[in-house]
Amino acid sequence: MTASTSQPTGPDPTPAPTDPERLQATDGLEGPARSEPQRPARARAEGSQSPAEGRSPVPDDTVAAVVRQWRVVDPGLDTAPMEIIGRINRCAALLQQAEDAPLRRAGLTRAEFDLLGALRRTGHELTPSELARETFSSGAAVTKRLKQLTERGLAERRGDTRDRRVAHVRLTDAGRDLVDGILPAQLAHEREVLSALDRGDRGELAMLLGELLERLESRPRAPRA
Q1: H or E element: which one contains 167?
Q2: Is the dihedral of CA 196, 213, 211, 18 positive or negative?
Q3: How far is CA 32 from CA 28, 189, 198, 207, in A?
C-alpha cells in the first residue's frame, strides 16, 4: 500500500470531512480511537490511492496460501472471516516475535509491558484484579506475570492493611524508568512498521479496527470456568 500522486477525476458530490487526529496511526498501546456515531462516509487522506489503484486485488501472503488450500479441500467453504481474523492473528504474532523490537531487546513480552504501562499511565497502585481488567487478561496470567516482574525488581506488591486477601501493586523506580525509556523507542519501532501503509490507509485501518474492537468489547462475556 504505497502512496499515489494521482488525484481522482471529477468532483466528489459528498466529500466527507477528515479529522487530522483520526488519520494518525495508532501506536498499539493506548487502544484505537472510538468511532463517531452517524459519521459520514469515510474519506481517504488527500493524495492516497483508492483500494483499486496500484495494489494487488488478492494479497500473496501466508494466509492467502492457507485460503487457497482450504478452497481445494472444500470449494464451498466461506473463508472470508479467515482472511481477516487470520491476518490479524498473524500480524500480532509477527510483531510479538520481532527480534529488533525494543520490548524484545529488553527481555519483556508485550503482556508484561502492558502491566507496567497500566501502572504507569494510571499513576497509582492497582490490585491484580484491576490490572486484569486494564489489560484484558485472566487473573492467573496476571499473577504469573507479576511474579516475573517483581523478581526483576520492576514492580512490587504490598498487602492491604484491612484485608490480607488483597494486594496492591506499584511500579518501582526501576520499573518507571524502564517504561519511560522504552516506550518512545517501541513507538518509533511500530511507526516504522506502519510506514509500509500510507497515511490514509493507516487512518482507515485504525477506524476499522476500532469499530471491530468496540463491537467485540460490547458482546457479553461467558463466565470463566
Answers
A1: strand 167-171
A2: negative
A3: 7, 18, 18, 7
Q: Which residues of 165-204 are buried (b: 16+ CB within 10 A; e: fewer)?
A: eebbbebbeebbebbeebbeebbebbeebbeebbbbbbbb
The per-residue pLDDT for range 166-193, each reduced to its tens digit, is 899 999 999 999 999 999 999 999 999 9
Question: CB neighbours (10 Å) of residue 113?
Answer: 24
Q: How far lies 161's CA from each of 1, 6, 43, 130, 168, in Å?
A: 56, 66, 55, 18, 10
Q: How confident is the model at residue 146 (pLDDT cuts 50, 70, 90)?
A: very high
Whole-prediction pTM: 0.66
User: Nearest 10 degrees: CA dihedral of 121, 185, 89, 211?
Assistant: 50
**Paired strand residues for 157:** 169
Q: At what angle do helices 110-122 and 139-151 cross, to 10 degrees?
A: 80
- The Cα–Cα gap between 17 and 45 comes to 10
Q: What is the pLDDT of residue 220?
A: 81
